[in-house]
Amino acid sequence: MDDAPARGEFVLDLPDPVPPLVRVRRWIAAELADLGDARVAAVQLVATELLTNAYDHGGGHGRIRLSRSGNRILVEVDDGSPDPPLLGDGNPKSPRGRGLVLADRLSAAWGHRLRADGGKAVWAVIDGSAATGAG
């Protein structure tokens, strides 16, 4: 994607062969610092879970976007697979399958859309005021 980010949108390309989770968490903290620690932590958790899934199931090497409208944050993570994300059962005894469950619980909504290049973007909307129960 060569498009410039829209106003209020922040983009981070991820060419690394492994998910740069610390880099992404720091980037989110810097871009959303005015939301407060608890709200930023909710966005960080959702973003790193979506990103981990992109690397584990979507071929890695993607792009993450944050779009902000007030306290509502849209997180989108691109990957190279057209396969839809699958919501696990969240069983704490399972070694996998809890990432989207966490994203589902912290998000007002989430889903995916196919991209023209054959991959997909998985997205989640986090309502910053609801992330901590604060108004």
Automatic annotation (TrEMBL):
A GO molecular function held by the record: ATP binding
Keyword ATP-binding attached: yes
Alphabetical list of Pfam families matching this protein: HATPase_c_2 (PF13581)
Domain Histidine kinase/HSP90-like ATPase: 22-125
Coiled-coil zones: none
Keywords, sorted A to Z: ATP-binding, Kinase, Nucleotide-binding, Serine/threonine-protein kinase, Transferase
Keyword Lipid metabolism recorded: no
Superkingdom of this protein's organism: Bacteria
Record region (Disordered): 77-98
Annotated protein name in UniProt: ATP-binding protein
Organism, scientific name: Amycolatopsis thermalba
